[in-house]
Amino acid sequence: MDVTRFIPLAIALLAAPLLFGIINRTKAFFAGRRGSPLLQLYFDIAKLMRKGVTYSNTTTWVFRAGPVLVLSATIVAVAFVPMGGIPAISPFPGDILLFAYLLAMTRFMTIIAALDTGSSFEGMGASREAFFSALAEPALLLGVSTLVYVSGQTSLSGIFASVNPAVWGNYGPALALVAIALGAVLLVECSRIPIDDPNTHLELTMIHEVMILDNSGPDLGIIEYASSLKLWAFGSLIVGLAVPVRSGILIVDCATFLVGMLVLAVLVGTIESTMGRLRLTNVPRLISGAIASAVLAWALILR
After folding, report:
1. CA neighbor of 158 nearest in space, from 248, 232, 101, 86
2. Number of domains in the chain
3. Considering the entire predicted model, what is its pTM?
4. Mean of the pLDDT values across residues 225-243?
């Protein structure tokens, strides 16, 4: 097996927490503050891994297994995501469906672990997570199915290897709409503003954070690391589509992809700095807009 296929996963495992640092520094810039170090999440995870774990008497093995299963499924999902034109470890036809449902498994495990605590607040967050994720999944699958049609490939590595300036020249408007839809899915799935505020501590308005209130120590560190990998996975889809550089030179393609991820993190930080959080009743409208963008992309291709 070509060792270069391990590069996307290795870089993701090492660099994913850096995205949160870039987003937070961007938000600090807009607020006129210095902000936390770029490596803050690395420090936080290392600190959490050295602490003890506290479990409620209400919880069972489901709660204890949740973080490990979430991280395991997320790593496997990330292993199928290429870095632009650099293929993943072991692509195969239809791996996009496995990718989607591995991430669905992480949501399921997070939800049932939250329900296992017996907390009404965590149950409320789990209900919101299930509802919004169910709305976002059609936008993801419709957007990726558009890419399958355009590229003629059914694996993630094949799809993004086929995205080049010529394809953008032929299907530019449709691909732009798919990128918009995937961007909205990223905000929903990764619980970012305007969908959710990852820094809030008000249970009545939290979605993801309220589900992990009972986690502590290494369990919380694992969840935070898994969240950064999830952000990297969705960001890779957007950058692989929006930055169609396929030079065939490993260093050039890696550098271009990483610059794209940097720009994406700055863009997410800019969105969070310039927009307020939506009311929960308005979130389905935004997701519906993402679905409409994916449907319109299909219409442009088939016209």
Report:
1. 86
2. 1
3. 0.95
4. 96
